[in-house]
Design brief:
- It is a single chain.
- This protein has helices spanning 3-61, 65-76, 154-162, 183-234, 252-308, 313-342, 355-369, 389-406, 461-471; strands at 81-87, 107-109, 115-117, 132-136, 139-143, 149-151, 168-172, 175-181, 351-354, 375-379, 382-387, 412-419, 422-429, 475-482, 485-498.
- The relative contact order is 0.07.
- The strands form 3 sheets. Strands 9, 10, 11, 12, 13, 14 and 15 form a 7-stranded mixed beta sheet that branches.
- It folds into 3 domains: 3-188, no CATH class; 252-342, Helix Hairpins (Orthogonal Bundle), CATH 1.10.287; 351-498, Heat Shock Protein 90.
- It is an alpha+beta fold.
- 52% of the residues lie in helices and 18% in strands.
- The chain is rod-shaped.
Length: 508
Protein backbone atom coordinates (compact mmCIF):
# COMPACT_ATOMS: atom_id res chain seq x y z
CA UNK A 1 0.00 0.00 0.00
CA UNK A 2 1.43 3.36 -1.10
CA UNK A 3 4.60 1.41 -1.94
CA UNK A 4 4.89 2.78 -5.47
CA UNK A 5 4.14 6.32 -4.34
CA UNK A 6 6.67 6.01 -1.50
CA UNK A 7 9.31 4.72 -3.90
CA UNK A 8 8.63 7.52 -6.38
CA UNK A 9 8.80 10.12 -3.62
CA UNK A 10 12.03 8.62 -2.31
CA UNK A 11 13.42 8.44 -5.86
CA UNK A 12 12.66 12.11 -6.47
CA UNK A 13 14.31 13.00 -3.19
CA UNK A 14 17.39 10.89 -3.98
CA UNK A 15 17.66 12.31 -7.50
CA UNK A 16 17.41 15.88 -6.23
CA UNK A 17 19.89 15.26 -3.41
CA UNK A 18 22.42 13.46 -5.63
CA UNK A 19 22.13 16.12 -8.33
CA UNK A 20 22.71 18.87 -5.80
CA UNK A 21 25.66 17.07 -4.23
CA UNK A 22 27.23 16.23 -7.61
CA UNK A 23 26.83 19.81 -8.80
CA UNK A 24 28.37 21.25 -5.63
CA UNK A 25 31.20 18.70 -5.44
CA UNK A 26 31.74 19.01 -9.19
CA UNK A 27 32.05 22.77 -8.82
CA UNK A 28 34.63 22.27 -6.06
CA UNK A 29 36.44 19.75 -8.29
CA UNK A 30 36.56 22.25 -11.16
CA UNK A 31 37.85 24.93 -8.83
CA UNK A 32 40.41 22.46 -7.44
CA UNK A 33 41.59 21.51 -10.92
CA UNK A 34 41.82 25.18 -11.86
CA UNK A 35 43.92 25.85 -8.75
CA UNK A 36 46.13 22.88 -9.56
CA UNK A 37 46.72 24.03 -13.15
CA UNK A 38 47.52 27.56 -12.00
CA UNK A 39 49.93 26.27 -9.36
CA UNK A 40 51.69 24.17 -11.99
CA UNK A 41 51.71 27.15 -14.37
CA UNK A 42 53.31 29.26 -11.67
CA UNK A 43 55.99 26.56 -11.42
CA UNK A 44 56.44 26.69 -15.20
CA UNK A 45 56.92 30.45 -15.12
CA UNK A 46 59.30 30.23 -12.16
CA UNK A 47 61.36 27.55 -13.89
CA UNK A 48 61.44 29.66 -17.05
CA UNK A 49 62.96 32.56 -15.12
CA UNK A 50 65.47 30.17 -13.56
CA UNK A 51 66.45 28.85 -17.01
CA UNK A 52 66.88 32.41 -18.34
CA UNK A 53 69.24 33.24 -15.48
CA UNK A 54 71.10 29.98 -15.94
CA UNK A 55 71.38 30.57 -19.73
CA UNK A 56 73.13 33.88 -19.06
CA UNK A 57 75.61 32.24 -16.68
CA UNK A 58 76.15 29.26 -19.03
CA UNK A 59 76.85 31.64 -21.92
CA UNK A 60 79.39 33.52 -19.82
CA UNK A 61 81.12 30.25 -19.00
CA UNK A 62 80.86 29.01 -22.60
CA UNK A 63 79.25 25.82 -21.25
CA UNK A 64 78.27 23.23 -23.85
CA UNK A 65 74.57 22.68 -24.59
CA UNK A 66 74.19 19.09 -23.36
CA UNK A 67 75.82 19.50 -19.92
CA UNK A 68 73.93 22.76 -19.46
CA UNK A 69 70.61 21.18 -20.47
CA UNK A 70 71.16 18.21 -18.16
CA UNK A 71 72.01 20.52 -15.27
CA UNK A 72 68.93 22.64 -15.92
CA UNK A 73 66.63 19.63 -16.05
CA UNK A 74 68.16 18.09 -12.92
CA UNK A 75 67.89 21.28 -10.90
CA UNK A 76 64.40 22.32 -12.01
CA UNK A 77 62.62 18.98 -12.32
CA UNK A 78 59.50 18.83 -10.15
CA UNK A 79 56.20 16.82 -10.17
CA UNK A 80 53.64 18.00 -12.67
CA UNK A 81 56.18 19.58 -15.04
CA UNK A 82 57.90 18.43 -18.16
CA UNK A 83 61.28 19.91 -19.21
CA UNK A 84 63.13 18.96 -22.34
CA UNK A 85 65.86 20.65 -24.44
CA UNK A 86 66.53 20.55 -28.15
CA UNK A 87 69.98 21.08 -29.61
CA UNK A 88 70.82 22.61 -32.97
CA UNK A 89 71.54 20.48 -36.02
CA UNK A 90 75.26 20.04 -36.58
CA UNK A 91 74.93 20.76 -40.28
CA UNK A 92 72.37 23.53 -39.95
CA UNK A 93 73.08 25.67 -36.93
CA UNK A 94 70.13 27.91 -37.78
CA UNK A 95 67.66 25.02 -37.76
CA UNK A 96 66.07 24.49 -34.38
CA UNK A 97 63.54 21.66 -33.94
CA UNK A 98 60.26 22.93 -32.82
CA UNK A 99 60.23 25.97 -35.02
CA UNK A 100 58.57 23.93 -37.73
CA UNK A 101 55.91 21.24 -37.51
CA UNK A 102 53.73 20.75 -34.48
CA UNK A 103 54.50 22.72 -31.35
CA UNK A 104 51.88 21.15 -29.10
CA UNK A 105 53.15 20.79 -25.53
CA UNK A 106 52.85 17.02 -25.57
CA UNK A 107 55.58 14.61 -24.47
CA UNK A 108 58.07 13.57 -27.08
CA UNK A 109 58.29 9.87 -27.73
CA UNK A 110 61.50 8.46 -29.15
CA UNK A 111 61.25 7.36 -32.75
CA UNK A 112 62.48 3.99 -34.00
CA UNK A 113 65.70 5.54 -35.34
CA UNK A 114 66.76 7.11 -32.05
CA UNK A 115 69.67 5.96 -29.93
CA UNK A 116 71.03 6.97 -26.55
CA UNK A 117 74.24 8.69 -25.68
CA UNK A 118 75.79 9.26 -22.30
CA UNK A 119 75.35 12.71 -20.76
CA UNK A 120 78.15 15.08 -21.54
CA UNK A 121 78.54 13.92 -25.12
CA UNK A 122 78.80 16.38 -27.96
CA UNK A 123 76.02 17.10 -30.37
CA UNK A 124 78.12 16.32 -33.39
CA UNK A 125 79.01 12.91 -32.03
CA UNK A 126 75.53 11.62 -32.48
CA UNK A 127 74.87 8.76 -34.85
CA UNK A 128 73.70 10.39 -38.02
CA UNK A 129 74.28 13.84 -39.34
CA UNK A 130 70.58 14.64 -39.52
CA UNK A 131 69.91 14.01 -35.85
CA UNK A 132 69.83 16.53 -33.05
CA UNK A 133 70.32 15.97 -29.33
CA UNK A 134 67.24 15.80 -27.11
CA UNK A 135 67.73 16.01 -23.35
CA UNK A 136 64.76 14.66 -21.38
CA UNK A 137 64.42 12.85 -18.05
CA UNK A 138 68.18 13.09 -17.48
CA UNK A 139 69.00 11.28 -20.70
CA UNK A 140 70.46 12.41 -24.00
CA UNK A 141 68.84 11.03 -27.12
CA UNK A 142 69.66 11.84 -30.71
CA UNK A 143 66.54 12.01 -32.82
CA UNK A 144 65.65 12.76 -36.37
CA UNK A 145 63.22 15.69 -36.42
CA UNK A 146 61.54 14.17 -39.45
CA UNK A 147 60.47 11.10 -37.48
CA UNK A 148 59.74 12.82 -34.17
CA UNK A 149 56.58 11.47 -32.49
CA UNK A 150 54.48 13.35 -30.01
CA UNK A 151 52.52 11.58 -27.26
CA UNK A 152 50.71 12.39 -24.09
CA UNK A 153 47.18 12.90 -22.78
CA UNK A 154 45.11 14.98 -25.14
CA UNK A 155 42.47 15.22 -22.40
CA UNK A 156 45.08 16.62 -20.01
CA UNK A 157 46.30 19.05 -22.64
CA UNK A 158 42.71 20.15 -23.35
CA UNK A 159 42.07 20.73 -19.64
CA UNK A 160 45.32 22.68 -19.26
CA UNK A 161 44.48 24.81 -22.29
CA UNK A 162 40.92 25.40 -20.97
CA UNK A 163 42.26 26.63 -17.64
CA UNK A 164 44.83 28.93 -19.26
CA UNK A 165 48.05 26.89 -19.02
CA UNK A 166 50.81 27.48 -21.60
CA UNK A 167 54.39 26.40 -22.24
CA UNK A 168 57.54 28.46 -21.80
CA UNK A 169 60.45 28.42 -24.29
CA UNK A 170 63.86 29.69 -23.18
CA UNK A 171 66.87 29.86 -25.52
CA UNK A 172 69.98 28.10 -24.34
CA UNK A 173 73.44 28.21 -25.92
CA UNK A 174 73.24 25.66 -28.78
CA UNK A 175 69.47 25.10 -28.52
CA UNK A 176 66.49 25.90 -26.36
CA UNK A 177 64.54 24.57 -23.35
CA UNK A 178 60.79 24.02 -23.20
CA UNK A 179 58.91 23.90 -19.91
CA UNK A 180 55.25 22.90 -19.80
CA UNK A 181 52.65 21.33 -17.47
CA UNK A 182 52.58 17.55 -17.71
CA UNK A 183 49.32 16.59 -19.49
CA UNK A 184 49.40 13.07 -18.00
CA UNK A 185 49.67 14.46 -14.47
CA UNK A 186 46.80 16.83 -15.17
CA UNK A 187 44.72 13.94 -16.44
CA UNK A 188 45.51 11.88 -13.33
CA UNK A 189 44.45 14.75 -11.08
CA UNK A 190 41.25 15.18 -13.12
CA UNK A 191 40.49 11.44 -12.85
CA UNK A 192 41.04 11.47 -9.09
CA UNK A 193 38.74 14.45 -8.78
CA UNK A 194 36.14 12.69 -10.95
CA UNK A 195 36.46 9.57 -8.82
CA UNK A 196 35.97 11.71 -5.72
CA UNK A 197 32.85 13.29 -7.22
CA UNK A 198 31.41 9.86 -8.10
CA UNK A 199 32.31 8.43 -4.70
CA UNK A 200 30.81 11.33 -2.79
CA UNK A 201 27.77 11.24 -5.10
CA UNK A 202 27.27 7.53 -4.44
CA UNK A 203 27.59 7.98 -0.69
CA UNK A 204 25.22 10.91 -0.90
CA UNK A 205 22.78 8.77 -2.89
CA UNK A 206 22.81 6.01 -0.26
CA UNK A 207 22.42 8.47 2.59
CA UNK A 208 19.71 10.34 0.68
CA UNK A 209 17.83 7.08 0.09
CA UNK A 210 18.00 6.14 3.78
CA UNK A 211 16.99 9.60 4.92
CA UNK A 212 14.35 9.88 2.20
CA UNK A 213 12.92 6.49 3.11
CA UNK A 214 12.67 7.54 6.73
CA UNK A 215 11.14 10.90 5.84
CA UNK A 216 8.57 9.43 3.42
CA UNK A 217 7.67 6.74 5.96
CA UNK A 218 7.14 9.35 8.65
CA UNK A 219 5.22 11.62 6.29
CA UNK A 220 2.97 8.89 4.91
CA UNK A 221 2.51 6.99 8.18
CA UNK A 222 -0.74 8.81 9.17
CA UNK A 223 -2.15 8.30 5.68
CA UNK A 224 -1.23 4.59 5.71
CA UNK A 225 -2.73 4.05 9.15
CA UNK A 226 -5.92 5.87 8.15
CA UNK A 227 -6.17 3.65 5.06
CA UNK A 228 -5.74 0.51 7.20
CA UNK A 229 -8.40 1.77 9.58
CA UNK A 230 -10.83 2.49 6.72
CA UNK A 231 -10.22 -0.99 5.35
CA UNK A 232 -11.15 -2.38 8.76
CA UNK A 233 -14.31 -0.27 8.59
CA UNK A 234 -15.05 -1.70 5.15
CA UNK A 235 -14.68 -5.20 6.66
CA UNK A 236 -17.31 -4.19 9.28
CA UNK A 237 -14.81 -3.99 12.11
CA UNK A 238 -15.93 -0.82 13.86
CA UNK A 239 -13.75 -1.24 16.95
CA UNK A 240 -12.39 2.22 17.77
CA UNK A 241 -8.61 2.26 17.38
CA UNK A 242 -7.35 5.87 17.54
CA UNK A 243 -4.29 6.73 15.46
CA UNK A 244 -1.39 8.25 17.37
CA UNK A 245 -0.42 11.68 16.03
CA UNK A 246 3.19 12.84 16.42
CA UNK A 247 2.73 16.26 14.84
CA UNK A 248 5.56 15.71 12.31
CA UNK A 249 3.51 15.71 9.12
CA UNK A 250 0.77 17.75 7.50
CA UNK A 251 -1.04 14.44 6.98
CA UNK A 252 -1.64 14.41 10.74
CA UNK A 253 -4.76 16.46 10.03
CA UNK A 254 -6.18 13.42 8.22
CA UNK A 255 -5.42 11.22 11.23
CA UNK A 256 -7.06 13.74 13.56
CA UNK A 257 -10.12 13.90 11.31
CA UNK A 258 -10.28 10.10 11.22
CA UNK A 259 -9.99 9.88 15.02
CA UNK A 260 -12.89 12.31 15.39
CA UNK A 261 -14.96 10.44 12.80
CA UNK A 262 -14.13 7.07 14.38
CA UNK A 263 -15.21 8.39 17.77
CA UNK A 264 -18.50 9.54 16.31
CA UNK A 265 -19.02 6.24 14.50
CA UNK A 266 -18.23 4.25 17.64
CA UNK A 267 -20.62 6.40 19.62
CA UNK A 268 -23.30 5.98 16.97
CA UNK A 269 -22.84 2.20 16.90
CA UNK A 270 -22.90 2.06 20.69
CA UNK A 271 -26.18 3.98 20.68
CA UNK A 272 -27.50 1.70 17.93
CA UNK A 273 -26.45 -1.41 19.85
CA UNK A 274 -28.13 -0.07 22.97
CA UNK A 275 -31.27 0.75 21.00
CA UNK A 276 -31.30 -2.72 19.41
CA UNK A 277 -30.82 -4.32 22.81
CA UNK A 278 -33.71 -2.32 24.18
CA UNK A 279 -35.80 -3.16 21.13
CA UNK A 280 -35.05 -6.87 21.46
CA UNK A 281 -35.90 -6.72 25.12
CA UNK A 282 -39.11 -4.86 24.31
CA UNK A 283 -40.09 -7.39 21.64
CA UNK A 284 -39.36 -10.27 23.98
CA UNK A 285 -41.28 -8.69 26.85
CA UNK A 286 -44.15 -7.60 24.61
CA UNK A 287 -44.31 -11.03 23.03
CA UNK A 288 -44.53 -12.72 26.38
CA UNK A 289 -47.13 -10.23 27.55
CA UNK A 290 -49.21 -10.59 24.36
CA UNK A 291 -49.18 -14.36 24.30
CA UNK A 292 -51.45 -14.80 27.32
CA UNK A 293 -54.24 -12.38 26.34
CA UNK A 294 -54.03 -13.51 22.73
CA UNK A 295 -54.43 -17.13 23.80
CA UNK A 296 -57.46 -16.18 25.90
CA UNK A 297 -58.98 -14.19 23.03
CA UNK A 298 -58.42 -17.03 20.58
CA UNK A 299 -59.97 -19.44 23.06
CA UNK A 300 -63.15 -17.37 23.37
CA UNK A 301 -63.28 -16.89 19.61
CA UNK A 302 -63.04 -20.64 19.13
CA UNK A 303 -65.86 -21.13 21.62
CA UNK A 304 -68.01 -18.55 19.85
CA UNK A 305 -67.19 -20.10 16.48
CA UNK A 306 -68.46 -23.48 17.67
CA UNK A 307 -71.68 -21.93 18.83
CA UNK A 308 -71.98 -20.07 15.55
CA UNK A 309 -71.72 -23.32 13.58
CA UNK A 310 -75.41 -23.91 14.23
CA UNK A 311 -76.24 -20.35 13.24
CA UNK A 312 -76.04 -18.50 9.95
CA UNK A 313 -73.20 -18.87 7.41
CA UNK A 314 -72.04 -15.29 7.77
CA UNK A 315 -71.24 -15.69 11.45
CA UNK A 316 -69.24 -18.82 10.76
CA UNK A 317 -67.15 -17.04 8.13
CA UNK A 318 -66.48 -14.11 10.45
CA UNK A 319 -65.34 -16.27 13.34
CA UNK A 320 -63.29 -18.45 11.02
CA UNK A 321 -61.50 -15.39 9.62
CA UNK A 322 -60.84 -14.08 13.12
CA UNK A 323 -59.34 -17.43 14.12
CA UNK A 324 -57.02 -17.47 11.10
CA UNK A 325 -55.79 -13.92 11.68
CA UNK A 326 -55.33 -14.65 15.38
CA UNK A 327 -53.24 -17.70 14.53
CA UNK A 328 -51.12 -15.55 12.18
CA UNK A 329 -50.63 -13.00 14.92
CA UNK A 330 -49.58 -15.69 17.37
CA UNK A 331 -47.10 -17.09 14.82
CA UNK A 332 -45.68 -13.58 14.24
CA UNK A 333 -45.31 -13.00 17.97
CA UNK A 334 -43.61 -16.38 18.41
CA UNK A 335 -41.18 -15.61 15.57
CA UNK A 336 -40.39 -12.16 16.93
CA UNK A 337 -39.71 -13.56 20.37
CA UNK A 338 -37.54 -16.32 18.89
CA UNK A 339 -35.56 -13.90 16.72
CA UNK A 340 -35.07 -11.49 19.61
CA UNK A 341 -33.73 -14.34 21.70
CA UNK A 342 -31.37 -15.48 18.93
CA UNK A 343 -30.00 -11.98 18.41
CA UNK A 344 -29.18 -11.66 22.07
CA UNK A 345 -25.82 -12.35 23.64
CA UNK A 346 -26.92 -15.49 25.48
CA UNK A 347 -25.56 -18.44 23.51
CA UNK A 348 -26.09 -21.89 24.88
CA UNK A 349 -23.14 -24.27 25.03
CA UNK A 350 -22.89 -26.41 21.90
CA UNK A 351 -24.22 -29.90 22.56
CA UNK A 352 -23.86 -32.68 19.97
CA UNK A 353 -27.02 -34.22 18.53
CA UNK A 354 -27.72 -36.71 15.77
CA UNK A 355 -28.39 -35.00 12.45
CA UNK A 356 -30.20 -37.95 10.84
CA UNK A 357 -32.74 -38.14 13.67
CA UNK A 358 -33.38 -34.39 13.50
CA UNK A 359 -33.97 -34.46 9.75
CA UNK A 360 -36.29 -37.47 10.09
CA UNK A 361 -38.42 -35.57 12.60
CA UNK A 362 -38.71 -32.58 10.26
CA UNK A 363 -39.61 -34.80 7.31
CA UNK A 364 -42.31 -36.71 9.24
CA UNK A 365 -43.90 -33.55 10.64
CA UNK A 366 -43.95 -31.81 7.24
CA UNK A 367 -45.41 -34.86 5.51
CA UNK A 368 -48.30 -34.75 7.98
CA UNK A 369 -48.84 -31.03 7.41
CA UNK A 370 -48.43 -31.24 3.61
CA UNK A 371 -49.54 -34.73 2.58
CA UNK A 372 -49.81 -33.79 -1.10
CA UNK A 373 -46.21 -32.61 -1.50
CA UNK A 374 -43.37 -34.96 -2.39
CA UNK A 375 -40.67 -34.54 0.26
CA UNK A 376 -37.57 -36.73 -0.07
CA UNK A 377 -34.61 -37.13 2.25
CA UNK A 378 -31.11 -38.41 1.48
CA UNK A 379 -28.68 -38.23 4.41
CA UNK A 380 -25.45 -39.93 3.33
CA UNK A 381 -23.50 -39.16 6.48
CA UNK A 382 -23.64 -40.03 10.15
CA UNK A 383 -22.70 -36.97 12.18
CA UNK A 384 -23.08 -35.43 15.60
CA UNK A 385 -23.84 -31.78 14.90
CA UNK A 386 -22.62 -29.17 17.40
CA UNK A 387 -25.15 -26.50 18.35
CA UNK A 388 -28.54 -25.84 19.85
CA UNK A 389 -30.84 -28.61 18.60
CA UNK A 390 -33.99 -26.52 18.85
CA UNK A 391 -32.50 -23.63 16.87
CA UNK A 392 -31.07 -25.90 14.15
CA UNK A 393 -34.48 -27.60 13.95
CA UNK A 394 -36.11 -24.19 13.40
CA UNK A 395 -33.55 -23.31 10.72
CA UNK A 396 -34.04 -26.47 8.63
CA UNK A 397 -37.81 -26.46 9.15
CA UNK A 398 -38.04 -22.81 7.99
CA UNK A 399 -36.08 -23.66 4.82
CA UNK A 400 -38.46 -26.53 4.07
CA UNK A 401 -41.55 -24.41 4.82
CA UNK A 402 -40.15 -21.64 2.63
CA UNK A 403 -39.82 -24.14 -0.26
CA UNK A 404 -43.44 -25.29 0.27
CA UNK A 405 -44.70 -21.68 0.16
CA UNK A 406 -42.72 -20.29 -2.77
CA UNK A 407 -42.58 -23.47 -4.88
CA UNK A 408 -46.11 -24.88 -4.44
CA UNK A 409 -46.52 -28.38 -5.79
CA UNK A 410 -42.77 -28.75 -6.43
CA UNK A 411 -40.92 -31.73 -4.93
CA UNK A 412 -38.58 -30.78 -2.11
CA UNK A 413 -35.31 -32.62 -1.46
CA UNK A 414 -33.22 -32.63 1.69
CA UNK A 415 -29.67 -33.92 1.27
CA UNK A 416 -26.79 -34.12 3.74
CA UNK A 417 -23.17 -35.08 3.11
CA UNK A 418 -19.77 -34.67 4.68
CA UNK A 419 -18.18 -31.23 4.22
CA UNK A 420 -15.05 -29.35 5.28
CA UNK A 421 -14.86 -29.78 9.04
CA UNK A 422 -18.48 -30.78 9.36
CA UNK A 423 -21.55 -31.47 7.25
CA UNK A 424 -23.34 -29.71 4.40
CA UNK A 425 -27.12 -29.91 4.23
CA UNK A 426 -29.05 -28.65 1.21
CA UNK A 427 -32.76 -27.98 0.68
CA UNK A 428 -33.73 -27.97 -3.00
CA UNK A 429 -36.98 -27.22 -4.83
CA UNK A 430 -37.98 -27.03 -8.49
CA UNK A 431 -39.82 -23.73 -8.15
CA UNK A 432 -39.47 -20.48 -10.12
CA UNK A 433 -36.29 -19.40 -8.29
CA UNK A 434 -35.48 -16.20 -6.48
CA UNK A 435 -35.73 -12.92 -8.36
CA UNK A 436 -32.32 -11.21 -8.87
CA UNK A 437 -33.55 -8.10 -7.04
CA UNK A 438 -34.35 -10.16 -3.95
CA UNK A 439 -31.16 -12.24 -3.60
CA UNK A 440 -29.08 -9.72 -1.65
CA UNK A 441 -31.80 -9.02 0.94
CA UNK A 442 -33.40 -12.46 1.14
CA UNK A 443 -32.10 -13.05 4.71
CA UNK A 444 -33.13 -9.63 6.07
CA UNK A 445 -35.86 -9.38 8.67
CA UNK A 446 -39.39 -8.71 7.35
CA UNK A 447 -38.17 -8.87 3.74
CA UNK A 448 -40.54 -10.84 1.55
CA UNK A 449 -39.50 -9.97 -1.99
CA UNK A 450 -41.16 -8.27 -4.90
CA UNK A 451 -42.70 -11.49 -6.32
CA UNK A 452 -44.35 -12.85 -3.17
CA UNK A 453 -47.81 -12.33 -4.62
CA UNK A 454 -50.57 -13.46 -2.26
CA UNK A 455 -48.32 -15.79 -0.28
CA UNK A 456 -48.76 -15.26 3.43
CA UNK A 457 -45.79 -14.84 5.74
CA UNK A 458 -43.98 -12.46 8.05
CA UNK A 459 -40.58 -12.34 6.32
CA UNK A 460 -38.81 -13.71 9.41
CA UNK A 461 -38.32 -17.39 8.48
CA UNK A 462 -35.02 -17.05 6.58
CA UNK A 463 -33.72 -14.43 9.02
CA UNK A 464 -34.35 -16.85 11.90
CA UNK A 465 -32.71 -19.70 9.96
CA UNK A 466 -29.56 -17.70 9.17
CA UNK A 467 -29.20 -16.41 12.71
CA UNK A 468 -29.68 -19.89 14.18
CA UNK A 469 -27.02 -21.40 11.92
CA UNK A 470 -24.54 -18.59 12.63
CA UNK A 471 -25.03 -19.00 16.38
CA UNK A 472 -23.98 -22.64 15.92
CA UNK A 473 -20.79 -21.54 14.10
CA UNK A 474 -22.09 -22.45 10.64
CA UNK A 475 -23.23 -20.61 7.52
CA UNK A 476 -26.33 -20.38 5.35
CA UNK A 477 -26.32 -19.17 1.75
CA UNK A 478 -28.04 -19.54 -1.60
CA UNK A 479 -26.09 -22.24 -3.41
CA UNK A 480 -28.07 -22.04 -6.65
CA UNK A 481 -31.13 -20.27 -7.95
CA UNK A 482 -32.63 -20.14 -11.44
CA UNK A 483 -36.02 -20.53 -13.11
CA UNK A 484 -35.51 -24.28 -12.65
CA UNK A 485 -35.31 -24.15 -8.87
CA UNK A 486 -33.44 -22.99 -5.78
CA UNK A 487 -30.96 -24.68 -3.46
CA UNK A 488 -30.08 -23.41 0.00
CA UNK A 489 -26.79 -24.66 1.45
CA UNK A 490 -26.43 -25.00 5.20
CA UNK A 491 -23.00 -25.81 6.68
CA UNK A 492 -22.70 -26.99 10.28
CA UNK A 493 -19.91 -28.01 12.61
CA UNK A 494 -19.98 -31.68 13.51
CA UNK A 495 -18.07 -34.46 15.26
CA UNK A 496 -17.80 -38.14 14.34
CA UNK A 497 -18.52 -37.45 10.68
CA UNK A 498 -18.53 -40.69 8.74
CA UNK A 499 -20.19 -42.09 5.66
CA UNK A 500 -22.28 -45.18 6.43
CA UNK A 501 -21.69 -48.36 4.47
CA UNK A 502 -24.28 -49.01 1.80
CA UNK A 503 -24.24 -52.49 0.26
CA UNK A 504 -24.48 -52.52 -3.49
CA UNK A 505 -27.30 -54.56 -4.86
CA UNK A 506 -26.08 -57.41 -7.03
CA UNK A 507 -28.10 -58.48 -10.02
CA UNK A 508 -29.96 -61.73 -9.67
Amino acid sequence: MFTKFSRRLTGWYVAAAVTLVVVVIGAFAVVGLDVYVHVIQDGVDADAREVQAFAVRAAARHEAFIPAAIEVETRLSRPGLRIFAFGQSPHDPTHVPGHSGTSLPILIRQGPLSSAQQPGGRAGAGPGASRVPLVMNGRVTYIDPAVMHLEGSTVGFALETAFGAHLQRVDLEGGFVRILPDPDATQRVALWLLFGVLLVGSIAGVLAWLVGRYITTQVLRPLIEVTHALQRFAARDFTPQPIAVAGKSEFDAIALAYNAAATQVASAFAERAQAETQMRQFVADAGHELRTPLTIVLGYIDLLRRKADAGDERSRRIFSSISVEGARMRTLIDNLVLLAKMEGEDVRPAEPFDLRQLVDEIVESRRLLHPGVKLSCDVTVDAQVLGDRTEIYEAIANLVDNAFKYAPGSPVRIEAKAGDGGVELTVTDDGPGIHPEDRDAIFDRFYRGATRGEIEGSGLGLAIAKRAVERAGGSLAIARTSPDGTTFSLRLRADLVRTPFRPTATPA
